[in-house]
Design brief:
This protein is an alpha/beta fold. It has three domains: 261 residues, Glycosidases (TIM Barrel), CATH 3.20.20.80; 135 residues, Rossmann fold, CATH 3.40.50.880; 70 residues, Sandwich (Immunoglobulin-like). Helix content is 38%, strand content 14%. It has 15 helices and 15 strands. It has a five-stranded parallel sheet with strand order 5-4-6-7-8. The protein has a four-stranded antiparallel sheet with strand order 10-11-15-13. Strands 1-2-3 form a three-stranded parallel sheet, with helices on one face. Helix 12 crosses helix 15. The radius of gyration is 24 Å and the shape is globular.
């Protein structure tokens, strides 16, 4: 049906050369059903590539199959660790193959068509919940021209006026790390869908923060889930105003935003697709899941002025770990043997590695891996209870490792936890920029480094005093005086 629709509509749309258009090949969940007619050979080839011999498969499956072609593909996710991973992985490959095929067919019809799609934000955050629909966003977006995502609502919390650290900023940093040179889109940005009235500067601040963290273009939804007309009327005007203000903001500061996009990562976090089916099997504690530890690590470093990125096993296989300064492994229990070896080689070459919780213990199918050598560049930590504990333990390590910025801003917010985000960046012409935002509910006093005296806020043209107050959700983009 999709092919018939594309074949009918794309030629009609592409005739009008006055405007560009995109073709979406994925939206949110992607159901997939194993059919021996189409998938048995793929299953056999996959097993052969993973195990080499049926004897090795039998030893891990606890079976006695005579050959790969008699190994069944089970209807539901198996309990056996090796079977579980293979079941998940084949389904991910199946849907990614279908998305690739759809993209290829579209380009046959119009080679100028821009192909995109947007998986759920939470498929990366809690992928185990979506294995029935076979989502691996890194595989899914491999054939896209634009990398998109269906983001979550940006809700408030007791600590923050916008609770976006892991649901938006962290996700954009993750997708930015995967996208490479391709533009990053939010796909759907339904950030105003829970409350009637949002704080002043709500959508404007969320947009600006998202672009600093990698977003390149956007489309927003105002989604009133309770279906009430008064809720819709109260939301629409504020979101439209904030979106328009953000658009003008971003046009004024496009150059510094690009500088933040291009800034090298100070620290990268390992994301292991293979670990997520297994982490909770090792221990029933939610604290030990890869998702929770990733959130704790990311938020623990969030307010330290660093550029935090992610590295997947696929990116490590491409050799990108060698270009990084420091890697944090947040309870990634199951990884490819080549990933484990690359991390040890990175540490031997002087790269900093921090292993959190049960990390690098097994292959994706559950075979034990040799422990990482006890090297001076390797730190080992228990899982963090929360982001506060992660911050207390990680920040001294980051300082000792030399990855924290050489300059920092001072913040007084009257709290025992940080609420002001800040980062430095430099553009290709050597111009220096400082982005700062107060995410808290209350005003915060910030003091700039002495070298930033006379800095100008590019959003309103004002010359900044060295010490100033930021109200809740107020943000600035400063340019350093030459």
């Amino acid at each position: 049906m999709y092919d018939q629709f594309a074949a009918r509509e794309i030629p009609r749309i592409s005739k009008d050369k006055a405007w560009d258009y995109t073709v979406e090949v994925e939206k949110q969940r992607s159901p997939v059903t194993y059919d021996p007619k189409y998938h048995k050979q793929l299953w056999m080839d996959y097993l052969a590539s993973q195990y080499g011999s049926v004897e090795k498969l039998n030893s891990l499956y606890k079976t006695s199959h005579a050959s790969f072609d008699v190994v069944p593909f089970e209807e539901s996710q198996p309990e056996n660790p090796a079977k579980c991973y293979d079941w998940v992985r084949l389904r991910q490959i199946m849907i990614a193959n279908e998305l690739t095929r759809a993209a290829q067919e579209i380009r046959k019809i119009d080679d100028n068509a821009i192909v995109h799609g947007y998986p759920y934000v939470w498929t990366f955050r809690e992928p185990a919940a979506y294995y029935g629909t076979a989502l691996d966003p890194e595989l899914d977006v491999a054939s896209y021209d634009l990398v998109g995502c269906d983001t979550s609502g940006a809700y408030y919390s007791d600590r923050y006026a916008i609770s976006t650290i892991n649901w938006l900023a962290g996700y954009y940093d993750l997708m930015r790390s995967i996208a490479g040179d391709r533009p990053l889109s939010d796909g759907e940005f339904h950030f105003a869908n829970r409350r009637k009235i949002y704080p002043p500067n709500w959508s404007r601040a969320i947009y600006f923060q998202s672009y600093v963290h990698g977003l390149s273009y956007s489309s927003s939804w105002v989604w009133t889930r309770n279906g009430r007309v008064d809720c819709a009327l109260l939301l629409d005007a504020g979101v439209l105003l904030g979106s328009g203000q953000a658009s003008l903001d971003l046009q004024r500061v496009a150059t510094p935003i690009a500088a933040f996009h291009d800034r090298p990562d100070d620290v990268v976090i390992l994301y292991s697709n293979a670990s997520s089916p297994h982490t909770r099997r090792l221990d029933s504690s939610v604290v030990l899941s890869q998702t929770v530890q990733t959130d704790n690590v990311y938020e623990g470093m969030y307010f330290e002025g660093m550029q935090v990125g992610y590295l997947t096993e696929q990116k490590i296989a491409q050799g990108l770990l060698k270009t990084k300064k420091m890697l944090i492994v947040p309870n990634c229990s199951h990884v490819e043997r080549s990933t484990r070896d690359a991390i040890e080689d990175f540490a031997r070459a002087g790269g900093k590695v921090v292993l959190v919780g049960d990390s690098l213990l097994y292959s994706p199918q559950g075979e034990p891996l040799a422990p990482i050598a006890n090297l001076p560049t390797v730190g080992r930590l228990d899982g963090f209870i929360d982001s506060d504990q992660a911050r207390a333990i990680l920040v001294p390590m980051l300082k000792e490792s030399g990855v924290l910025p050489s300059e920092s801003i001072q913040v007084e917010n009257g709290k025992d936890f940080p609420t002001v985000e800040w980062r430095f960046a430099v553009d290709p012409n050597g111009e220096n920029y400082l982005y700062v935002m107060n995410m808290g509910h209350e005003p915060a006093q910030i003091t700039l480094p002495t070298s930033w005296n006379g800095a100008v806020d590019l959003l309103d043209g004002q010359t900044m005093a060295q010490s100033t107050t930021l109200n809740s959700l107020q943000f600035r983009m400063l340019k350093k005086k030459q």
